Amino acid sequence: MITILCAGSRGDFQPYIALAQRLMKTGKHVRIVGNKSFESFITEYGIGFFPISADIESLNIDPKVLEAASTADNPLKMLLAFNKMKAYGIYTTAEYYEACKNSELIIYHPGCTIGYFAGKQLGIPSVLASPFPLHKTKEYLSVVMYGKSKPTAINKKISYTMIQGMLWMASKSSLKSFWKKQFGDLPKDFGAPFEYHNHSNQPALISCSNHIFDRPKDWNPHIHQKGYWVVEETESYTPPKELVDFIASGEKPIYIGFGSMSMIKNHTDFGRIVVEALKKSGKRGIISGFGKPTNLTEDIFALDSIPHTWLFNHVAAVCHHGGAGTSAAGFTAGIPSIIIPFSNDQFAWAHRSYDLGIGVKPIYSKDLTSDHLAAAINEAYHPDIRKQASLIGEQIKLENGADDCAKVVLNLINQIEERDV
């Protein structure tokens, strides 16, 4: 059995679902470990699930801490938010460790570093699987500083120290407490384990397209970045007839949705701004996650949620908050991006799309107005951006990230089995 340790929001789980699907196709039994609220989401794909009982509601986490983590718009704020969140990890560490037992291999999200240490303690190989480039390189800034700082040699070094440090900080205290209570002494290599994945029997996997951030040449050969890990839907999606009719009734609309960001305190006015921007731009739109704004027109269709893999193939451009998964879906669809970053790595995807010519200049959420958004919408229809977005989208579609990374895992298992014969 292969055990995948995961953490985060629904979007964070999707790449790991994709990886699990490809491993299961080879006959492997796979289960994902995560917050109990994701159980139905995971099991509907036929994937096993190990629920972590402690969650945001049961732990009564201070909403202000969650808001700070979701709106950290510079590296210092990110660091402080991660520092505040670390106290809650102690409730989940023991359960993640229990989930690792009796596994043949552990795959872990960088926010679940217990996977590395549990693997060593239990004699089980572990694989780091990250939804973004994480390892040190001299070629570009990490995703917590890309677009926010000048890419000097010292800044690049600092940026990777920062992203690895934040991820380690989120689990260090709880892991240390659990380990001392359970085993007495800390492991000799107790520290951020990300750079430990540098040999064939302990590889690292990255879910990112090489056409967005090219795999750095100074990475060790056991860090595998093969493309995005895309979920294979179990059934073809059937959209509402009203939506299909709306799309067919005129020029291709633009999609606008900010995911969970639209629900954060002080952001409740976004629906009105979005509708006003669409009116000013003269474009048709599909908006998601804003409820039913009172200023809707017949050229704007409002919905709660919809699979991006379906919708993004039926719109002219996408406007969103810059989550890694949503950004990947937009880039893959080959349509222009308008990214309104709020926090963390969202700024990196926003600036990267602009640098690659597949998106417009980012509008930071604090600067969002209907005039700024209307201008960005019109800019997204520029022929050069549309052409470049289409070109890179076609290149991304030629990658087989989840399949190729699953092969790395299977080769490791075969290597271990042959060695043990």
Task: Give structural notes.
This protein is of the alpha/beta class and 421 residues long. It folds into 2 domains: 2-228 and 400-420, Glycogen Phosphorylase B (Rossmann fold, 3-Layer(aba) Sandwich); 241-397, Glycogen Phosphorylase B (Rossmann fold), CATH 3.40.50. Helix content is 44%, strand content 12%. The chain is built from 16 helices and 12 strands. The chain has helices at residues 10-24, 39-43, 56-59, 63-70, 75-85, 90-100, 114-122, 153-183, 241-248, 270-281, 308-311, 324-333, 346-355, 370-380, 383-397, 401-420, and strands at residues 2-5, 30-35, 48-52, 105-108, 126-130, 204-207, 223-227, 254-257, 285-288, 300-303, 317-320, 337-339. Strands 3-2-1-4-5-6-7 form a 7-stranded parallel beta sheet, sandwiched between helices. α7 links the parallel β4 and β5. The longest helix has 31 residues, at 153-183. The protein is globular. It starts with a strand and ends with a helix. The mean pLDDT is 89.
Task: Map the helices and strands.
Elements: E1 2-5, H1 10-24, E2 30-35, H2 39-43, E3 48-52, H3 56-59, H4 63-70, H5 75-85, H6 90-100, E4 105-108, H7 114-122, E5 126-130, H8 153-183, E6 204-207, E7 223-227, H9 241-248, E8 254-257, H10 270-281, E9 285-288, E10 300-303, H11 308-311, E11 317-320, H12 324-333, E12 337-339, H13 346-355, H14 370-380, H15 383-397, H16 401-420
Parallel strand pairs: 1-2, 1-4, 2-3, 4-5, 5-6, 6-7, 8-9, 8-11, 9-10, 11-12
Helix pairs in contact: 1-16, 4-5, 5-8, 6-7, 6-8, 10-14, 12-15
